[in-house]
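Colleagues,

Please find the record for the two-part complex below.
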Amino acid sequence: MSGNTENKISSDIIIYAKDLSKKFGDAIAVNSVSLSLAKGGITAILGENGAGKTTFIHACLGLTNPSSGTLSMFGQPPGSISVRRRTGSMLQDADLPDLLSPREHIELFASYYPDPLNIDVVIGMCKLTGFADKKYKKLSGGQKRRVQFALAVIGNPDLVFLDEPTTGLDTDTRKMLWDVVRQLAADGRTIILTTHYLEEADALADRIVVMHAGKIIADAPTPEIRSLAGGAVIKCVTALSIKAISVLPAVISVRRSGRFVEISTENQTSALQGLLMEDPNISELIVKKPSLEEAFERIVHDKEQE
Amino acid sequence: MQFLSLNAFFNECGAEILKAVRAPEYILPTLVLPVAFYALFAFAIPNSGVDSARYLLATYGVFAVMGPAIFGFGVGVANERDRGWLDLKRASPAPAASYIGAKIMVTLIFASLALIPIYLAAGFGADVTMARSAWFMLFGLHLLSVLPFIFIGLALGFSFGSNGAVAISNIVFLGMAALGGLWIPAFLFPSALQTFAANLPSFQLAEIALAIVGAPSQSGVDRMPMHNLTIVAIMTTILAGLAFWAWARQRN
């Protein structure tokens, strides 16, 4: 900690970004992003490919220099050695040398950190036991991702970045990874993961930051993000046309899905009353909470309308 | 923290050695070819007396250390950069000095392994005799010769993708060897080519080595080892700057 009293970013603030931008030539990858992230919990950065998630993470890791704005990690400049000693990361396109075994890779990474976890414990935790001594190049894609994940946690870091950790993984490996991520968060570590799987953000994250075209367009606790899609979704079979439904009270949007229509509404009671008034013969009625996917589509849709 | 860096350095050296030993198809040619060529030209060809064996010991020694330096750094760094491995290392607390230091250490080990059979062939096969101090000075010079080629390798590794780096490293390696007069003495070249040869670190290093073994200079004029040494130092500094520039440029 520096003795700079003016720079009184508390030690509980792990990431502090203000008006952060990154340009590659004429393209703006990250556009005036401001974000403050406190210690603990799992935060998901959600967005489509090209939304700026990876560039933002690379800036946090000191791999890319911001074009403008402020960014500090643990109150220090990104990439400084004291920050790197407290950080573990799993990058999207980082493959390891082919001819070393998972155990050798993990031993090497453990030697970079002042207080690493026990190597055998990490091998067990990340389920590498059956192949820890095989050469890396002989492993399957899912096994390789598990080794990369092990490298992110071996240093016993306070902060773990996981950039698209489960892309292309089989269900078993994904569930294993989720379990370990929850366990790491339960130990008081701060986890930041990027994903374009809404299901993953929904299942894991306490907080969701939605990025679109380089900007943060939503940033809130997960239940709040979900509620942005409106109060409820009504699913039923009806003779009414989409057009007739869309003018009913409290209806936000309507779409057809096979035999069903799906009505997104901000007030399920008034929408249902209106619906039953127009068509008393509706059948197979389901009322459900909106999924995160619906929330996400709505947030991105609203942003593009602006 | 001091201990931590040292521990990382030893682990990094071990990892580099394992990677090299587990890919013998890459490392063996750089160890075997120099001594095979040396044996062929120094005493398998008739009329090649002890003078030519002495002369070629100086130049083939430079040739022998070029391979591990140019390929180890050029192809090795390009490959690890290409697959995103260097990014992951940069994000980790791995000391940059221990990564480069381990690669230099391993290059020196393999350079020694390439040199020793040539020295044995010269001493026992071709009966080259020199003062003991001359043998040690020659070995020291040959080991130090890795330095400019390491910087060339680094510049290539940071500038090209892994496939490109293999091709360019081969061209640089063979060009430095042939045009630097390591295979055929430069005084046999046409004069324009001789002038060009003098601009290569391989030529200048060979000149110093030839002075140590007491063989004639390639340039045909009076021998000036201090002059050659200064040129090598300047070239090495320029190449170090080039390597640094290539490194800085590939970061964004």
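Chain B has one domain: 2-250.

Comments are welcome before we finalize the supplementary table.
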